[in-house]
Design goal:
By secondary structure, the chain is of the alpha/beta class. A three-stranded parallel beta sheet has the order 1-2-6, with helices on both faces. It is built from seven helices and six strands, in the order H-H-E-H-E-H-E-H-E-E-H-E-H. It has a domain at 23-103 and 133-154: 3-Layer(aba) Sandwich (Rossmann fold), CATH 3.40.50. The radius of gyration is 17 Å and the shape is globular. The chain has helices spanning 3-14, 25-40, 63-78, 94-102, 115-121, 133-136, 148-154; strands at 51-57, 84-90, 104-106, 122-125, 128-131, 139-140. Bound molecules: S-adenosylmethionine (SAM).
Length: 156
Amino acid sequence: MKPSEEANDLLGDMLIGVTNFFRDREAFEALERHVLSALMGSGLEKPKRDEVRIWSAGCSTGEEAYSLAILCTEHQKLETNPVKVQVFATDIDERAIATGRAGQYPEAILTDVPPTRLRQYFVKDAQQYKVRKEIREKSSLPSTACCPIRHFLRST
Ligand SMILES: C[S@@+](CC[C@H](N)C(=O)[O-])C[C@H]1O[C@@H](n2cnc3c(N)ncnc32)[C@H](O)[C@@H]1O
């Protein structure tokens, strides 16, 4: 094994990648109720900005980034003049990022994703659920564990 591979394996052993869709339910509810309408405008009002950018720092396998993109999409559907949304996701763990980029998850996500959202935002493929293109396009996961600022700047 090359030293760089050994270092990667060691790093992988140290990182804790536990995550779920809509993990920390209270935080997501607060975000939905109080933060998104303030950020994205509400009702017929013209939004205060053209674009909202969200950073999911330490996104692990992507569930947090996709959960945020789903919430924003639902909010956009309520708006007359929806604001553009981009969720930037970064993590030091390249294997986790690669899983996130694939956007494909096991049936166990049924525990965390309610049936309506599952139907609207995922496509079932054999025993897996794939995040729909509409949501993946709003979620920017880098191809490597790059520097977050560079990832953000490259995407502007
Ligand atoms: C417990 S998971 C949390 C995932 C997600 N944010 C959530 O709350 O569901 C923590 C993640 O942070 C990442 N992480 C830890 N230290 C980091 C660092 N210095 N830079 C980038 N990512 C880091 C880990 O690789 C891991 O995937």
